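Aim 2 progress update. The chain analyzed this quarter is reproduced below.
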Amino acid sequence: MIRENVLEDILDTLKFGESILIECRPSYIPEFTVLALTRYARRRNLPVIIDDNLDMLYTIKTNLELFGVKEDFSDVNVIKTGGRIEVGNVIRRISITEAPPTYIQKYKQAAQEAFRDSDKALNIVLGLERLFYFVRDPEEFYTIIVSMQEFLGNKSRKAFYIIDKNVAKRAYINPLPEMERIMSTVIDVEGRGISARLFFKKSAAHSFRGKAVEVTMDEILR
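Predicted structure tokens:
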């Protein structure tokens, strides 16, 4: 029997310092994952920092409104790469035309600024798989992967990378194999009507490793 607080149990068990990869297919999983993480953070009095790549946060906000969920993300700090539509409290913009080494340097500066006033925060990364469409050189590709790897173990953040598997696999260099390697937890999420099935392909927590759990829409919207 699924516990009523299964989602909170999962989010509480995931440790600060973890990088969590959430893999999904075309669906509304990103919308409701962002909503669930944001609401969880508010209940725990944790600040939220969103990496918004190519206006993905605007898409999520708009789709939630179509579902009748009003969420303006006004209390969320946002690091924005590319795109034009600002949602949330945008604290730094980074040009999508930057070369990977320059982009990484500017991103690290933005991240340091975002985490400066918080001992602990939730970090949600949106649309990263789309940035890999601009990367064709293996050296540039691994520059990005190594920079992501450096954030693993940073105890000031609990990071969630929400990735559309179909989009990632069509990039010139598919980032999923390397992202799965460097992440501490990898969760494959499949929408099932009014619920979602979470399969833990990889987990730092023994209690979740290789397990599947189900989260209902009611729990997310509660």
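DSSP finds nine helices and nine strands in the chain. The CA atoms of residues 53 and 81 lie 5 Å apart. These observations will guide the mutagenesis experiments scheduled for the next reporting period.
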